[in-house]
Specification:
Length: 340
């Protein structure tokens, strides 16, 4: 027969409410009484189940993760998958269970599903609209955003400094002597791709080296196949062939590499390629991909620690936390040949 709070109270000779306070860690209990309760718990080998913990603490120790993304894959995506892995590992360390949902439409249905599960808080990954923010605010449920931004000042947002990504890539290629540079840009409705393209072109303009529209390929997705197709289309369209290509994420860059090799060109001798994200596939390519490292795991880990503080009604410093990207120079970029 399982041990109950009543059994603990009898053994420690205290009230049930006192036992509840000790288990939940709330309210005042004298050190002597607390020791008696803890001793009784140990003697009786009491292990509170999730239902009992929720009744005592008014918490379920469940958190929800909703990933808003229109295109597959979602959970297995090499960028979002890393964030999710870090969330799951950190939640386990803090004794949370995690419900994961994906939503292509950014609908209220996904939030309703999580609210029905009585989650203590939500991590919302990628895009978020004002309707969703207002809906969650009405229920007073703690939530924060990862890899997405909003104009709502009260929402905590954990994001990469995507403008810095474009600047790092532009500076690297310019320093290697490249002046004719193409771009494979992911969906421009997505914050990261838009900011990376804008800052890349802006930085090159500041350096006196613009990027013409003919040398920009706009991809409908951020996936490998579209990167390959965009490079081929851009190559045919551009009257002056680029000596380097920047892709706004690594999957697009790897697709572009496939197209370049199919044309019989050498990387980096004939053309240099740089991506963004530093996914696992980046260092597995031949040659390995020069890219911009994004703190994917750190964003996922920090999101759970911050959400835990919000759940416990603790104050947090800052509403938008930006993570600094870092250039990873590998084998797909080199100084331009003097014969070019």
């Amino acid at each position: 027969m399982s041990v109950t709070i009543i059994d603990i109270a009898r053994r420690a000779n205290v009230s049930k409410s006192t036992v509840s306070r000790v288990i939940a860690g709330t309210g005042y209990t004298s050190p002597e009484t607390r020791k008696k309760v803890l001793d009784a718990i140990e003697e009786l080998e009491y292990k509170p189940n999730a239902v009992a913990r929720a009744m005592v603490s008014q918490r379920t120790y469940n958190i929800g993760v909703i990933i808003y993304r229109q295109h597959h894959p979602i959970i297995s995506h090499p960028f979002y998958g890393k964030i999710l892995d870090a969330i799951l590992a950190t939640a386990e360390r803090l004794n949370y269970s995690v419900f994961v949902s994906t939503d292509k439409e950014m609908s209220l249905r996904s939030a309703d599903d999580m609210l029905e599960k009585r989650v203590d808080g939500l991590v919302l990954i990628s895009r978020l609209n004002q309707e969703m923010i207002g809906y969650l605010d009405r229920f007073h449920i703690p939530f924060l955003m990862v890899n997405g931004t909003t104009e709502s000042e009260h929402v905590i947002q954990l994001v990469n400094d995507d403008r810095r990504c474009g600047v790092l890539a532009a500076d690297h290629l310019f320093a290697l002597g490249h002046r004719q540079i193409g771009v494979i840009a992911g969906p421009q409705e997505h914050r990261s791709h838009y900011l990376r393209l804008e800052s890349f072109r802006g930085r090159l303009r500041d350096l006196g080296c613009g990027v013409s529209e003919e040398q920009v390929g706009y991809s409908p997705t951020s996936m490998f196949d579209d990167g390959q197709q965009c490079l081929l289309a851009m190559w045919e369209r551009s009257p002056i062939k680029p000596t380097a290509v920047y892709a706004t994420n690594d999957l697009l860059a790897l697709g572009a590499i496939r197209a370049i090799l199919e044309k019989g060109l050498r990387i980096p001798e004939d053309i240099s390629v740089i991506g963004s994200d530093n996914i696992d596939y980046a260092h597995l390519s031949t040659p390995s991909l020069t890219t911009i490292h994004i703190e994917k795991e750190k964003m996922g880990e920090d999101s759970v620690y911050m959400l835990d503080r919000l759940i416990q009604k603790q104050a947090l410093d800052g509403k938008r936390i930006e993570y600094e990207p870092k250039l990873m120079v590998r084998g797909t970029t080199s100084a331009i040949s003097t014969s070019k």
